[in-house]
Write a structure and sequence with these properties.
Elements lengths: L9 H8 L13 H9 L1 H12 L3 H16 L9 E3 L3 E4 L2 H12 L12 E3 L4 H15 L3 H14 L4 H13 L3 H14 L5 H17 L3 H14 L3 H17 L2
Parallel strand pairs: 2-3
Antiparallel strand pairs: 1-2
């Protein structure tokens, strides 16, 4: 099976963009998103200090606070929107590329044609979900990590870090078919991956196929992953697949 590496069709992009902007984080919109993001900066910095230091005690201490902040957020996508009547806020690099590309092709993106598209600073809301999920994952609580990543992806469905951690958690939960389905989805619908990130997704896909005893598909996924980023880890997984295929031969 070949990995799905195609971008969304133009029609699918337009349909996605014409959805209403989310006002789900309370009444936040435009500057409200940024203000809320700034307010959680301090506690989030403590969380990442603990994560980077690999300090389990500090991680446990900060987890209730960041989880409380995450619980206040609604699991609804933060979409681009017109702000102050004079520009269009794109809250992620994916949104900015999506809108700019479609506009350059003359496609109606659902916003006034005379307004500039402005990429905003990355919001901390996605990093908050990542931190909660990461700490729970490191504590071995994979079932609790998954909803944190799911909420983050609901808000920011094309966030590469959240996508990778979600895949890793599905694998640890031995949900291999879900891992394959999610990798299909993001490879088809997220088109701003760099080579290393795309390789990681294909690698996770290969592990899932192997673990689900779909060896030919595993070999194909791992071969493509190796093209994007040639690592010893991928080579080791390919050897496992080759050994398993050899054992199946009469």
């Amino acid at each position: 099976m070949h990995a799905k590496l195609l971008a969304l069709s133009t029609m699918a992009l337009v349909m996605a963009l014409h959805g209403p902007a989310s006002h789900a984080q309370g009444s936040q919109t435009c500057d409200g998103y940024f203000d809320a993001s700034q307010k959680m900066s301090s506690i989030l910095q403590k969380a990442f200090d603990a994560i980077n230091a690999k300090n389990a005690a500090d991680q446990a201490a900060v987890l209730p606070a960041i989880e409380s902040e995450l619980n206040k957020l609604a699991a609804v996508e933060v979409k681009p929107e017109v702000c102050n009547g004079n520009h269009i806020n794109a809250y992620t690099q994916h949104q900015f590329l999506e809108l700019s590309t479609l506009r350059a092709k003359g496609v109606d993106i659902g916003f006034p044609a005379n307004l500039p598209i402005v990429k905003q600073p990355n919001l901390n809301q996605g990093s908050l979900a990542y931190a909660v999920g990461w700490i729970k994952f490191e504590r071995g609580d994979f079932n609790a990590a998954l909803p944190a990543y799911e909420k983050g992806l609901a808000m920011f469905p094309h966030d590469h870090n959240l996508q990778n951690e979600y895949l890793a958690t599905l694998i640890r939960l031995q949900r291999y078919k879900d891992t394959i389905a999610f990798s299909d989805k993001i490879l088809a619908n997220t088109y701003d991956f760099d080579d290393e990130t795309r390789s990681k997704i294909l690698f996770a896909r290969g592990i899932a196929f192997y673990s689900d005893n779909q060896l030919d598909d595993a070999k194909e996924a791992l071969k493509v992953a190796k093209r994007y980023n040639d690592t010893d880890e991928i080579d080791a997984e390919i050897k496992l697949v080759d050994d398993a295929l050899a054992k199946k031969k009469p």
